[in-house]
Design brief:
The protein is mostly helical. The chain has one domain (10-135). Helices cover 58% and strands 7% of the residues. It has helices spanning 10-38, 48-66, 72-76, 91-106, 114-117, 124-129; strands at 79-83, 131-135. α1 (10-38) packs across α2 (48-66) and α2 (48-66) crosses α4. The radius of gyration is 16 Å and the shape is elongated.
Length: 136
């Protein structure tokens, strides 16, 4: 394990995610309200809403992970992400991490169990995106 690494167990990750969910609700309401206002009060295609939710969530996490390495929920729980290969947290790493976290949600958090079995205590999204956590 890298000397900067910090083990963030699933309960702490979930708690930070719940905290961020409340912030995301505000973002989703703002984006949805703007979209309805732009369209004159009517959204005729059903895929626009889910697309706006996914896109605004990706932008939310991408912005915070690339600028400071943490969201507000992560800051409250005193951890942030960093790149394990020594580089910056790039848009590619953010995208991989974001979609692997969505995959984790669809599997009811099962890939988080990898933390307990891996040598470096990393989850699936940590491995795939080449990122890890450090204590702040």
């Amino acid at each position: 394990m890298n000397n900067k690494s910090y083990i963030v167990f699933p309960i702490k990750r979930i708690a930070a995610s719940v905290y961020d969910l409340f912030l995301l609700l505000g973002v989703w309401f703002a984006v949805g309200s703007f979209a309805v206002w732009i369209n004159g009060g009517i959204i005729q295609t059903k895929w626009v809403g889910p697309l706006l939710v996914i896109l605004s969530t990706w932008i939310f996490y991408g912005y915070f992970w690339m600028n400071g390495g943490k969201t507000l929920g992560m800051a409250v729980w005193n951890f942030e992400i960093y790149s394990t290969d020594g580089g910056e947290i790039t848009l590619k790493k953010v995208t991989i991490r974001f979609f692997s976290n969505i995959f984790t949600i669809f599997l009811a958090g099962l890939p988080l169990a990898l933390i307990y079995f891996s040598k470096d205590n990393l989850s699936l999204s940590d491995y795939l995106s080449k990122t890890s956590y450090k204590k702040i």
